[in-house]
## 1
Amino acid sequence: MAERMLKFVSVAQEQPDKRPAEARRQDFNEIYDEFVPAKAETQASRCSQCGVPFCSVHCPLGNNIPDWLMMTAAGRMEEAYELSSATNTFPEICGRICPQDRLCEGNCVIEEGFESVTIGAVERYITDNAFDNGWVKPVRPVTERDESVAIIGAGPGGLAAAVQLREQGYQVHVYDRYDRIGGLLMYGIPGFKLEKDIVLRRHRLLVESGIHFHLGKGIGDTDGADSIAFSTLRARHDGVLIATGVYKSRDIGGPGAGLGGIVRALDYLTASNRVSLGDKVAEYDNGELNAAGKSVVVIGGGDTAMDCVRTAIRQGAKSVRCLYRRDRANMPGSVREVKNAEEEGVEFVWLAAPQAFEGEGSVSGVRAIRMKLGLPDASGRQSVEPVEDSAFTLEADLVVKALGFDPEPLPTLWGQPELEVSRWGTLMVDRKSFMTSLPGVFAAGDIVRGASLVVWAIRDGRDAAAQMHAWLEEMTAAQAEVAE
């Protein structure tokens, strides 16, 4: 096996072929082609099999990356899949949307100049190949249990927990206010990064596993036709996991902030994804959430902003600019995504922040001011300061605010004032048990840690499921003792 590895000295790094920018501007299909088997094996063989695998250390899931790279290099693909899926519930999704350049690949120990192993592309190939060969099977618990658990939220965290609990034999019920599973995987992330058939394929597998989905069913303080009271949910199930994510968009003020044509990123992306799925969206058809023929300005510098600018390009915008108050080096979004956006025709306006919005009834421009980087703040990140007399205006018919997300006020919405939250509005949990201030109610993912990566949501969901299982086992044992 050893002679198959350490090929980084003789084999150059290669990503899967990327479609030309002009072609990918025309549709919402994924921009990267699949690795062919020989190419996947060759790229996997570049792994140095280092003694301390920093790629695994810096992966939130602790994936056994060197091991499944070695199996891939040897052509032992079914074993590679078993290793990959042992620690990751959805490797085909992480292989597509994880910011590998900041996580595993960004911490590869191969020296600069030889370039890191293409971990994400190989991970994607392994699981897609496993699906093609029928190696991905539904969950089949050894023993069915009587206890049922409710999971609120069909996003990556909730789904990861659902799989882990189903493997233990629990009767798992997932509730989500949307009509399809996936949360932001389905409605927040565009198809050019994650085609929706990938998520729907997982949905079918989860249903075959015996997981019950209650879609279009929100949680509230009373029962209704399309909602269920949180108190009813607790009474119906033996344990509850809250994995709602964070959906409250951060806003921006200033003169003209209430003009028409200024929209939230999530509304914009959801409309686009629904249209791609074949849904009828009135706000898209009337142009409110459609960039066709417009001068678009996206405010923000994270991955959501990258999704918005690249979506606007595909909708046929006249021009697309991204306004960000820091420079390229300090941008929180993936470096790879910035490069893809630039190739597709997005213009980045670095070190600039909005001051006001111009227009009569509807926005016609964004008045901005130049910024400069100052001294590091308490977090170690450089502060930003305005440059005097540097105001300028960007033409804009559509402004998309991609400023991040905060938690919704769940205690108020659900009529549960005793559900404790932090000063940021996230749910307070015991860091070891994942239990909230309500007995038998657990929480995981963004609703606990704040807006973060999909891979962290999966990790939290898996860990929370393990703690729920331990608690339910303890409760079952205690009830048995009382019965005796």
Note: The chain has three domains: 21-133, 148-247+405-483, 252-401.
## 2
Amino acid sequence: MRHPDQDAHTDLDPGSAALELQDDLEGDTVREECGVFGIYGHPDAAAITALGLHALQHRGQEAAGIVSYDGSRFHSERRLGLVGDTFSRREVIDRLPGTMAVGHVRYATTGATILRNVQPLFAELNAGGLAVAHNGNLSNGLTLRRELVKSGAMMQSTSDTEVILHLVARSRRSRFIERYIDALREIEGAYALVSLTNKKLVGSRDPRGIRPLVLGELDGCPILTSETCALDIIGARFVRDIEPGEVIVFDENGQDIHKPFPPMAPRPCIFEYIYFARPDSIVHGRSVYEVRKAFGAQLARESHVPVDVVVPVPDSGVPAAVGYSQHSGVPFELGIIRNHYVGRTFIQPTQAIRESGVRMKHSANRAAIEGKRIILIDDSLVRGTTSKKIVRMMRDAGAKEVHFRLASPPILYPDYYGIDLPDRGGLLAATHSLEEMRELIGADSLAFLSIDGMYRAMGEPGRDPANPKFADHCFTGAYPTHLTDQTQTEPQPRQLSLLAEAS
């Protein structure tokens, strides 16, 4: 989620210097911030949830949490860091007894990585406890938060997920699910929620289906999670996608489905296919790996130039580069080797380290590129900082020509649904022409996948402006929901700007 204090930077921000270095290493990375998992009725609920979160680690690497229920008490473990840092230990899993559990992995922006923001968030309501794990972002979350605070609510986090807890608590309806739906009626934006009470596991998606949520089954027990790869890791069976606007409830009586919203044309986020989802996941019936290969093949149709080798920027550009190579007939080579073991806090970001930062993560494979004309394939371009360094690295390693291709259209607009993108002024394509971008990154040529080409690679005839099939607002500016917070002029609340916690 984007958070009210995401730009706050004080001496109390934990690990902020290391995050600055990481931003420098990942200057062209589009980052999304959450993955969710929940299971009902299994004796090993917490252990299975931990395994599922391992499979979703790519969706969030700042923090992880699990809440379980053992029939009488809720148990919570929430920690900063990777899933394996905490949840691979037997003693931690033993502290999470019960047959019901929900889990969350999170990717936070600078200034928001504090323990109180780590999900699942939990609150004790008059009907009992409620734990909520949220993937997405509420585009009216700040507005609702301001109204709740004015009416006396006390916020303990800077996460918009806490707003949902307060809305459920504020509802005057008698049954929990009615109160839960009341809360959903008040929020807008993108959300895939997995929630846990002392009796129920509840999943819900926003009416446009912007964020993914799937239903699986293991040993007769239902599972709700962000991606099918989390089902594969535990040997669970994929059942179906949760539909846009659907609320699904599991309890001792079985399954109950609610559809409280008028039907709307689905607009799932196109970035799930471009970047977020793992290549081995199936998203809305499409193989992510095959879609990314199709993006690369379409890119070859649109902007090929004579070269000797196709080189992916690992790991994000690999499937598209495979598709480009297969369509063009140009050999695929691993001209860049990625170091997967670059840490966040191992060294302070001195200027000398900043200059060599990209080489800590990517190294040129000179044997594959020296003396050759190469095409570099990556999934997207945000600020251009890393792309510039990689092009220079290729030239330093002896590449004769370096052509850069992006397997997505130019990113021209910010996101308000949970993607960590800068405002428009920080987006290279929004502030520079194609030629200016090419010159800035130092490539011999530069080209992006066209918007219509992206749709054709998805099996559509092209983009229909009157009825776009995907949330493609980062490329087109056509946002699929109201953006209430963006119309407000009041300053954003920063309740926790002076609070630091040990983790």
Note: The chain has a mean pLDDT of 89.
## 3
Amino acid sequence: MDFDLPESAVAVRDGVAAIGARHGLDYWDRCDAEKRWPEEVWRELADGGWLGLAVPEEYGGGGQGLLELAVAAETLAGSGAGAASSFLYLLTPAFGALTIARHGTELQKNALLPALAAGETETCFAITEPDAGSNAINISTQARRDGDDFVVTGQKIWISGVERARYMVLVTRTIPAAEAKPRLNGFTILLIDIEEAVAEGTLTYRPIPKLGTNTVASNMVFLDGVRVPVANVIGEVDQGFAVLWDILNPERIIAAAGAVGCGELALRVAVDYAKERAPFGRPIGANQAVAFPLAQVSAQVELARLMTYKAAWLWDAHRPCGAEANIAKLTAAEAAWQAADRMFQAHGGMAYSLEYPVARLFRDARIGKSIPVAEELILAHIAQHELGLPKSY
């Protein structure tokens, strides 16, 4: 077994770290306070070729894989961005480029991958619905065939990045859930031209005020007769769940990588403060009540990193990785939250001061325990599918 990162991943880590070093905690604090996309970082990542890592070389990308994307997301998060920076590697590099590179038609690849690799075209992903939540099987957004088009009607919620994206990777039902046999049949993944649909008045969206991850807006999306050419189907009609697994597992892995970076960052902020703060004549970090919890978090972060890399490696090898992706997301989210909590505690009352990055990192770390899948569902999946216990839901 070889636990050394491949040279390609080391180069990614070093390249993204150089960008991160120019845009530290203060930069991300400002972006969060102003609720704006980190455009400067996005452009530097694009110009350096760090967005198209998983795009094949013949389409202008780096010809690498999900492992390199995960390393990039982890490095960016750890540089000062925190967990919110995961969206820079989820929305376009993973949801768009990675999906089309593996499942797109040759026409779709030629039309989209070069611009996605360059960061010139952006994408978002839409699956969650108000009445379905985490139960993706029961989504009701309908795509009805009409000649050479599908006509889409429905609603989506918590869709991040719509306001920037040109295309939406949309999960629809072409067979209603009640009629699908087996129940995973009847899903069709469509690529929607957002700009065109907005201009026609068939797609609208509304931002959702939220607690954290303020560098990207999340939205309610309303689809009212959006026409989508059949040529924009990703994968096969009615068989979209095969594509969906290759979206959801990378989503978990990138989210886990961002959480690992966030945990490492929160730990570093806590340790630096614990070394300097000395209200009783010695640094508070000399006290075991402060030091031991931080040491415990350090171990948790390292374990989560190993599972995240393993899950990404399995996906790149076209091997089953569902259990590993779930475990990576579960453990990384918990490590990030524990790191943020101990960072908060180490700062005492100063944690409430917005002069420190504690509040931002604390807010953004918490969401990982709930999205992209709640930890309770992951535990239920492990109990049923890994331990063989009776189904609990």
Note: Residues 241-276 form the longest helix (36 residues).
